Amino acid sequence: MFLKGKCALVTGSTSGIGLAYARAFAAEGANVVLSGFGDAAGIARTCEELAAASGGKAIHSPADLTRRSGVEEMMTLAADTFGGVDVLVNNAGMQHVAPIEEFPPEKWDAIIALNLTSAFDAARLAVPWMKAKGWGRIISTASAHSLTASPFKIAYVAAKHALAGYTKTLALELATCGVTVNCISPGYVWTPLVENQIPDTMKARNMTREQVINEVMLVRQPTRQFVLPEQVAAMALFLCRDEAAQITGANMSIDGGWTAE
Question: How many CB atoms lie within 10 A of CB 66?
């Protein structure tokens, strides 16, 4: 259990890729801070599951990360409980699909706040602890959309491209501090975020559900398969190992060959 005694905070971790990250870290002994919304009883059961797996502790922050004060609340909870954050995973995200002339400005603001600004604020507050310990890992869930684009997703694509730049910049700033900074860029992973964008894509492109899955989503992935959350989590876990200490500033694609084309 190479993460024993360390604190791993994963935003957007009550389901999907984030929950897979949390389970992977707990299996290696990490204390876990979950972040996100959902059924309170279900989240409590998840915390119990993670604590049993790690032999440590798992807690949940319900803070709204679209607000700076929410990120600060989450990070204060982690600091008060575990002293600080050793592994920060910026995973929280949201999506909206619409042509730009129909794209609500409030959706732009919310997507940028959650997908990008929350990552800035979380790192701003985590880095002093990591520097003091001489060890840390910052990992962001970017997307194949950090490397390429799709129509009708202007806010999401802009935020994910920015996360790739965030990763490179922080990697250079922290290169001599024992802290690595990387992002993982999955293709389409079968998660609630992906499933929930299908109806909007159906409307925007005048397609059936099956057409969206096969002609919009999986057509971009040469393997014609969805990425599994556990595959993304395995990459994140490797990036936390000592063997990955010289991997920093990298954008790791897990996209079934999407961005190879």
Answer: 18
pLDDT, residue 89, reads: 98
Whether 35 maps to a domain, the answer reads yes
Name the residue range of residue 75's domain: 7-188+228-260
Count of structural domains within the chain: 1
Q: What pLDDT is recorded for position 194?
A: 81
For every residue of 32-58, DSSP letters joined together read: EEEE--S-HHHHHHHHHHHHHHHTS-E
Please pick, among 21, 156, 166, 188, the residue that the annotation labels catalytic.
156
130-146 pLDDT tens trace: 999 999 999 999 999 99
202 lies in some domain: no
Distances (CA, A) of 150 to 60, 220, 256: 34, 10, 17
Span 62-72, pLDDT tens digits: 999 999 999 99
Check if 188 is active-site. Answer: no
- Please tell me the pTM assigned to this model: 0.94
Q: Reduced to 3 states, what is the DSSP secondary structure of residue 185? A: strand
Among 75-79, 92-96, 166-170, 201-205, the range scoring the smallest mean pLDDT is: 201-205
CATH number, domain at 174?
A: 3.40.50.720
Burial class (CB in 10 A: 0-12, 13-18, 19+), 200: middle
Q: Is residue 48 part of a domain?
A: yes
